[in-house]
What we know:
Structural class: alpha/beta
Shape: globular
Strand order of the largest sheet: 3-2-1-4-5-6-10
CATH topology of the domain at 2-189 and 226-252 and 293-314: Rossmann fold
Bound molecules: nicotinamide-adenine-dinucleotide, 2'deoxy-thymidine-5'-diphospho-alpha-D-glucose
Largest sheet: 7 strands, parallel
Amino acid sequence: xxxxxxxxxxxxxxxxxxxxxxxxxxxxxxxxxxxxxxxxxxxxxxxxxxxxxxxxxxxxxxxxxxxxxxxxxxxxxxxxxxxxxxxxxxxxxxxxxxxxxxxxxxxxxxxxxxxxxxxxxxxxxxxxxxxxxxxxxxxxxxxxxxxxxxxxxxxxxxxxxxxxxxxxxxxxxxxxxxxxxxxxxxxxxxxxxxxxxxxxxxxxxxxxxxxxxxxxxxxxxxxxxxxxxxxxxxxxxxxxxxxxxxxxxxxxxxxxxxxxxxxxxxxxxxxxxxxxxxxxxxxxxxxxxxxxxxxxxxxxxxxxxxxxxxxxxxxxxxxxxxxxxxxxxxxxxxxxxxxxxxxxxxxxxxxxxx
Length: 354
Ligand code: NAD
Ligand code: DAU
């Protein structure tokens, strides 16, 4: 069995589907079910005998320890986090609690469990920490892409909390020998993403006839990776990654935000045209920039390609079309997660963004 923290979130849920489809092993999802945790994303595997769920907060060390003792997993895949940059600017406390304190509690529970394992199981155990490219800070237009040796320079409360968690994971390897692996990934997109992040928010707002809020001048660049490619990368690192190493994961898809929004509008114009015949582009609204907004991220994924043979399979064009189609095909999933409440502060902050 493997443990998947945050398995009811966007990437975690995609990973559960991926794992159950490609492995004979069981999974236990450990998830506190915050606003971002959604068991509807796991509904289609709920009756799979290899799928198990426990509602648990990773900050609750004794509860995590009890689950480790009960299920004896050979790996912990750590996805659980507060993940949204805007929310971290508005209220950083939850990010420090879950991303820093929660990772610490999880590492301590894992260390105590691992220390008691018999030698073969001890050698086989893995703690895989899922992190982000945002720990490296922001790039200028002609700077080279982030590598695994780029110095850490996190700029938002979110990225600072993830950087702290990366350092804890590293230290637990160096000080205690805990067999850890870390992945630092670029922006994911695909099914089951909460509609607070750029791509699902734009699809949702477009269909709802709301403004499409582009922060600042819309020229910020992100390196987009289809979530299934990320899941394959994580499975590969789990299988063959060198202990204590970090691996950058990216999609080779550097795109300016405004171009992402234009492409989404064009796809929706084809797949679900507006009733008045005009383009969804008419809904684009430029709003106040995100405070401290990182200008550009780009990942050099050469190491994971050279050493583990992983490359992304989905192009941005095919992945985005697939994603738009998924949201069009799953209006109930979107409706059930869209209370409207979560965007209230963003509306106040950016004006007209909600
Ligand atoms: P998400 O916000 O969609 O899901 C997070 C999940 O963690 C939710 O199910 C939530 O209920 C759970 N959770 C939060 N606090 C918890 C706690 N204290 N105890 C237990 N569970 C808790 O996040 P995501 O986008 O799926 O990201 C998953 C991981 O990948 C995060 O660590 C994030 O930093 C990292 N990451 C995300 C991206 C991206 O583009 N989304 C890119 C790179 C790295
Ligand atoms: O780079 C990896 C990171 O990508 C992950 O670690 C984070 O968990 C994930 O949330 C994501 O962070 P970003 O801040 O890049 O993602 P977001 O979808 O919030 O924003 C993408 C870009 O779009 C960013 O430049 C801000 C801009 N944006 C975002 C929203 C929500 C807008 O212009 N308008 C919006 O309404």
